[in-house]
Design brief:
heterodimer; A: 283 residues; 2 domains; 10 strands; globular; B: 264 residues; alpha/beta; six-stranded mixed sheet; four-stranded antiparallel sheet; 11 helices
């Protein structure tokens, strides 16, 4: 059975005549890592809001079709229980930081306090999640004095600490440097290995290619492409839908054009290297 | 004319040394990328150029004017700064008011105001958002609103802090087109970014910062060929550069054509 199931789902934000989502059919399985890419304004964040139940519970507007979360219609979910089940890391870390806590420690602990977790357990979780995200040295600092990259890590830590079954993560690395970005992907990958279901919105396709099982491309409120990462990222129509393929995909097509074809189109550097070496051995 | 940093140092009130003895010169009409890890001092350097901060030691000249002798407002019309976080910059109720704010402050007449706003709107592709509340539009588009609101002041130098964050293919193309146009008009563009493909494809000159210093100032090709610099700065190569290295191809290949050519 699918963990999340959307059947003929359409949605309009309040006072909007446009469909933010149009006729979406999507099945997500437990324990998989899904990447969502595509043009801005194409429906990526709205899809996340729907899966997380913020639509229809927080955003009103017109929702039609069926959204099942672990077998129960989203409309019938209690919002508190749903937020404990599905963690949501917002796109803009400046928005997610509460602004009402004086230290990073308290900021991360806040969600756990709201769940009524025992004090010692909270301290333990905050410390372990801070180590995971390399922010132990920030715990005493004021969240409002952090850099964009640091805030992004803190916002992410606060959600991981909640230990939800599923995580919806909207561009967690937009303010991070390449190493910080790699670190975050490695952490997400670890969460996946521990059985979490992950939905990640991200423009950094080279990392999507390396880590995601499946990729969904959103365009004009519809699902333009949906399938295994390899098939979707090497699809020649990708750019039409506002997404940029990894550079090695361009390389694969350029090799074809130069009459030096590889046996398939690579989506990662590792794959490209092995395909080029394989070609060298054949010729 | 140019922006000149001469042995500039700066530390934050908590004692963090953000910039240590940095010297750098940027000509008008030049296009420059500043890259490096979070915390390397990139944003501090550009805030010094814009006179949001003043050097604790050393001298910073903007077109021969020592920034220490001026206020932020007196320098910021020469050196426009688009903040990393658009929410730090936006304060009006709709996009058009945001764009009209600076022309009013500069006491421009209606005709000039309209001409400047029309042009900034066209460059940034935000026409359909003019009547919207800036906070109701997506983050990457909000970034273009802040770019437009700085463009209307007609700066001689424009600083873009992480403009590619969250941008889709179209957003990146809009940025590329904008930088081309500004350069043609002799406006210097200084861009902080973590997007190495964007750097390789768009910048002749790349400044690498690490631990409060400039550790390299060269062409993208030279910088990405230096594994020691890449490691010290904690950055990575653009993907095709990574591929060329992994394939042990000779030279400092960075672009598609040369890579395809080099493989027999």
């Amino acid at each position: 059975m699918s963990y999340i199931s959307l059947k003929n789902v359409s949605y309009q934000y309040p006072y909007s005549k446009q469909f933010a989502l149009q006729d979406i059919n999507l099945e997500l399985k437990k324990g998989k890592f899904y990447g969502v890419i595509g043009q801005n304004g194409g429906g990526k964040t709205t899809l996340c809001n729907t899966i997380r139940g913020l639509i229809p519970h927080f955003y009103k507007g017109e929702l039609s079709g069926e959204v099942l979360i672990d077998g129960t219609d989203v409309r019938n979910w209690n919002t508190g229980e749903l937020s404990a089940k599905i963690g949501y890391v917002f796109q803009n870390p400046f928005t997610q930081i509460s602004g009402i806590k004086e230290t990073v420690f308290e900021e991360i602990a806040m969600g756990l306090e709201n769940l009524g977790i025992e004090k010692n357990k909270i301290i333990e979780s905050v410390i372990s999640v801070s180590e995971l995200l390399s922010i132990s040295d920030l715990l005493e600092k004021n969240p409002n004095q952090l850099s964009g990259g640091q805030r992004q890590r803190v916002a992410f830590a606060a959600i991981i600490a909640m230990d939800a079954e599923m995580l919806v993560i909207d561009e967690p690395t937009s303010q991070l440097d390449p190493q910080g970005t790699e670190d975050v992907f490695a952490i997400i990958d670890k969460l996946k290995t521990s059985g979490k279901t992950i939905i990640l919105v991200e423009h950094k396709v080279s990392l999507i290619a390396r880590y995601c099982d499946q990729v969904i491309v959103m365009s004009d409120g519809k699902i333009a492409l949906n399938g295994l990462a390899k098939a979707v990222l090497s699809d020649p129509r990708l750019e039409e839908f506002g997404a940029t393929p990894p550079e090695v995909v361009h390389f694969g097509y350029a090799m074809q054009k130069a009459k030096k074809p590889l046996t398939e189109i690579p989506i990662t550097v590792e794959e490209a290297v092995s395909l080029v070496e394989k070609r060298g051995k054949q010729s | 004319m140019s922006i000149q940093l001469q042995n500039v140092s700066f530390a934050y009130p908590d004692g963090t040394q953000a910039i240590s003895n940095v010297s750098l010169e940027i000509q008008d009409g030049e296009r420059l990328a500043i890259i490096g890890k979070n915390g390397a001092g990139k944003t501090t350097v550009v805030k010094l150029m814009n006179n949001l901060y003043q050097p604790l030691s050393g001298t910073l000249l903007v077109d021969d004017i020592d920034t220490k002798t001026k206020t932020t407002a007196q320098i910021s019309h020469l050196v426009g700064y688009v903040f990393q976080n658009p929410d730090d910059q936006i304060f009006n109720k709709d996009v058009i008011s945001e764009l009209e704010y600076m022309p009013k402050y500069l006491k421009l007449d209606a005709k000039e105001t309209k001409a400047r706003i029309d042009e900034a709107v066209e460059f940034t592709g935000i026409k359909r958002y003019l009547k919207r509340n800036p906070y109701d539009i997506p983050y990457p588009i909000r970034k273009f609103v802040t770019i437009a609101s700085v463009l209307v002041t007609k700066p001689k130098y424009l600083i873009l802090d992480e403009p590619t964050a969250g941008q889709d293919r179209q957003g990146i193309q809009t940025l590329e087109h904008l930088m081309d146009t500004l350069q043609e008009r002799g406006i210097g563009v200084i861009t902080i970014t973590h997007d190495m493909e964007f750097v390789a494809n768009n910048f002749e000159r790349v400044v690498v910062m690490a631990h409060a210093n400039v550790i390299a100032d060269a062409s993208g090709r030279e910088v990405f060929a230096r594994d020691d610099i890449i490691a010290e700065a904690g950055i990575r190569k653009p993907q095709l550069g990574e591929l060329a290295s992994a394939l042990k191809l000779k030279g400092d290949l960075l672009y598609l054509d040369e890579l395809v050519e080099a493989i027999k």
